[in-house]
Amino acid sequence: MILATTRRIFRRLCRSMRAPLLLCLPLTGCLEFVEPPQATTPSLPNPLLIGTLTGPTTYQSRGQGPEGFDYEVAMQFGQYLGVETAVVPYSDLAALFEAMESGEIHLMAAGLNRTPERAQRWHFGPPLYQVETQLIYRVGQRRPKDLASLDGTLRVVKGSSRTELLRRAQQTLPNLQWQETDEFDDAELLAQVAEGSLDYTLVDNRVLALYQRRHPELRTAFNLGQPLPVAWALPHRNDGLLLSALLEFWDSELTGGRLARLEEKYFGHVERFDYVDTRAFIRAVEKTLPRYQQLFQRHAGELDWRKLAAVSYQESHWDPLARSPTGVRGMMMLTESTARRMGIRNRLDAEQSIQGGSGYLQQLITRLPPNIPEDEAIWFALAAYNIGLGHLEDARVITQRHGFDPNSWRDVKKHLPLLRQRKHYERTKYGFARGDEAAHYVENIRRYYDTLLWIDSQTVAEHSEGDPEQDNRF
After folding, report:
1. pTM to 2 decimals?
2. Residues 120-123: contacts with CB within 8 Å, 24+ apart?
3. Which one from 217, 253, 264, 315 is the annotated catalytic residue?
């Protein structure tokens, strides 16, 4: 789009310059028209090389291939430009920054905070979102109220935005000390705090929210400084064409709602945290899940078995004899009518219950409206598993009445609680429902699923250490 516009302007300039010269030729007989020198038209890089960092908020490789918020947006940017695109992952900030300075990559999409020092070094695009920098300590330890009251070792990633904050704080706290490391990343530093081998670290609130489900012992002491925008960065040597294209892309993506969908996919379920529930879930994964894992794998069908296991934990905490006052029973808490429909004779038999629940959930997915994005269909289906397809459709209608997208889980989950309010449910087909519970139900399952993914990946890494064939499985 930008390239075509540049070419049209250039052709018009050439035509406007050529006409007066041609008119004067018959009069002089001595002037010879000289074709204007061809200017080099700026072009977008092809292939476009985008650098990122490995991590849960940016880029990670799993069984189905690479994924991550920045990875998906980067691939969409390349598709928008119509150029071949490669996302190049780096393991640390130093390697990423060196690649940027040497010209190995054209831009960085790595969840980078825009700071005053970095703004002098690179061009930054529009902010994607904002984060808070938080000081993290371990539950059971004394909670510091500020940097001046730290009593132990503070360690942060070298070259991170946190080092800038600490240097500024040191101007008023000359005795402030900390360690900078390029050996460990945020995840490893958080693990050290959780296990008690490190007293404090600094990370942003979104990183903490993701890792707190894996290490529930982590706590926030206080926020440091002002919220920081997260944005992509380009080198100053850029001719401006790529930055202009990036600005147009952000405008297009924000208007179309695609960035909001990706933000919901990766961050929409991580804000709520329950220490007791998280610890109980991790214990259950270690002690109870091994008894039923093969059953989940055998009957998952088109589902990821870990999603199915997460649903079952939310329903029954993997108790095959579970029952509720409403009459639902078993591992997947099936009603009598659903069990009959799925051909299940004994709801208290773990395998039959898992088979029935899996089949019913997959059936719900096929009954959803076709306009719902494929990667969000599972969350809609889970809401229907909890409150029924009819109430889910009522919530979609309410969502649309309020001017939002009924095919976006991000929008629908915000309107599900309105099914409790008379002024809204009286205008629906199926009436009152506990929509707020359905929204929480889905978000709980998403958190359990993410935790299972992480635990499973850790197990695979341990078993495959030193075995090249095993290393390629994930």
Report:
1. 0.65
2. 121/236, 122/233, 122/234, 122/235, 122/236, 123/233, 123/234, 123/235, 123/236, 123/238, 123/243
3. 315
Sequence-separated contacts (24+) of 245-248 with Cβ below 8 Å: 245/2, 245/44, 245/80, 245/81, 246/77, 246/107, 246/125, 247/125, 247/126, 248/1, 248/2
Q: Encoding tokens for residue 3?
A: 């390239």
- Residue 112: name the closest of 130, 99, 88, 134 by CA: 130
| Alpha-carbon gap, residue 139 to 215, rounded angstroms | 11
Cis, bond preceding 47 (omega within 30 deg of 0)? yes
- Which domains does the chain show, CATH number per domain? 48-129+231-267 (3.40.190.10), 130-228 (3.40.190.10), 276-449 (1.10.530.10)
* Tens-digit pLDDT profile for residues 180-221: 999 998 989 999 999 999 999 999 998 898 888 788 899 999
Residue spans of alpha helices (H) in 325-434: 336-341, 350-366, 377-387, 389-401, 409-415, 422-425
- Establish whether 253 is a catalytic residue: no
